[in-house]
Amino acid sequence: MSESQNCPSCKSPYGYSTGTLMMCPECGHEWNPEEEAQATTDETVVKDANGTILQDGDSVVIVKDLPVKGAPKSIKAGTKVKNIRIVEGDHNIDCKVDGFGAMALKSEFVKKA
């Protein structure tokens, strides 16, 4: 019997080879195992408001006033944030903002410093 792979769509462990492609018997999804291997090795690309690619450890500047839930004041435009970390999700930057502490920011509201 040939090697089975987990289905990237439904995570079923019963994927089987149909020659050049893999097939899932549970959901019917077909995929190319070589393309899937390349897709899993690609890193998340995060771009700032100007389209510049951001990486872990970069410094950024906030481009607009950002209200903070539960705080009496907002983070002002022009605030510099050092040593960012790129993460998965809607708010794709984790950082520490002076005067506010740990924050999760959206990349569309920052530009690379």
Q: Numbering strands along the chain, what is their spatial order in the largest sheet?
A: 1-2-3
Total strands: the figure is 11
Poorly predicted runs: none
N/C terminus separation:
55 Å
Counting DSSP H or I runs of 4 or more residues, the number of helices is 1
Largest sheet: 3 strands, antiparallel
Which descriptors would you attach to this protein?
113 residues; mainly beta; 3-stranded antiparallel sheet; 1 helix; 11 strands; 8% helix
List the helices and strands and how they pair.
Elements: E1 16-17, E2 22-23, E3 30-31, H1 33-41, E4 46-47, E5 53-54, E6 60-62, E7 80-81, E8 85-86, E9 93-97, E10 101-105, E11 110-112
Antiparallel strand pairs: 1-2, 2-3, 4-5, 6-7, 6-11, 8-9, 9-10
Describe the structure.
This protein is mainly β. Helix content is 8%, strand content 27%. The protein contains one helix and eleven strands; from the N terminus they run βββαββββββββ. It has a three-stranded antiparallel sheet with strand order 1-2-3. It has a three-stranded antiparallel sheet with strand order 7-6-11, with no helix packed on it. Strands 8-9-10 form a three-stranded antiparallel sheet, with no helix packed on it. It is elongated, with a radius of gyration of 21 Å.
